[in-house]
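Schema walk-through. Below, the input block comes first and the output block second. Nothing else is stored per chain. Lengths vary across the set, and this one has 244 residues.
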Amino acid sequence: MKVLIVDDEPSIVNLIRMNLKLEGYDTVCAYSGREAVERYTTHHPDIVLLDIMLPDMDGYDVLRAIQELDRSAAVIFITASDKRTSKILGLELGADDYITKPFDNKELVLRVKSLWRRIRLAKGAAEEATAPPPAPSPAPDQEPPGLLRYGQLEMDPEGHTASVAGEEVSLTYREFDVLCYLARNRRRVIGREELLENIWGYSYTGNTRAVDILIKRLRQKLGPAGELIKTVYGVGYRFEVPAK
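--- output ---
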């Protein structure tokens, strides 16, 4: 696994690099926004650790530039600001996570591990879906095994893809996992803490706002199909399929 570390403070870059190296991860370093985009283009990292305050362009613009290269890019923001608006903006733009300086080294590694685990699961499913089938393909009028379909919305957990009315929707790893989790548990209300534990993969105490922002982003991407995700105020969310 390769991580791109973006920060204009060499001491922080070195600290993160050493901690990730101890876990066996490869790293690439960048000290400005433009350098970060160049490194992403050249090295195709699996995860980006991105500082918001950079000398030439802020992290939000770097994220947008990276997303133009890869809509599913996995990004964790690192910010010296504990302002709620800064964190919310990063999540709304499509970042997977954020961590505030000064950060605990173990927590940073834990968040990287958690995101990498989701990425590996998604990539593994996609590789299995594209591998030659061991058995004859289903008849033309049969759906592929594991396909989830609700009205115009279709999800293929094996291929890690989703489409609405036949048009593929570009979702991040975490967005897709949340959507599948809600759909598979559609008979009950899912609390924010449960989503954090099962999708984010670790305690996110006091930051359930991250779930709300992801759901908002997910609904926007799904268009009319986003109405399948209902808010149960004060509790969480429920995937609600209209009666036929």
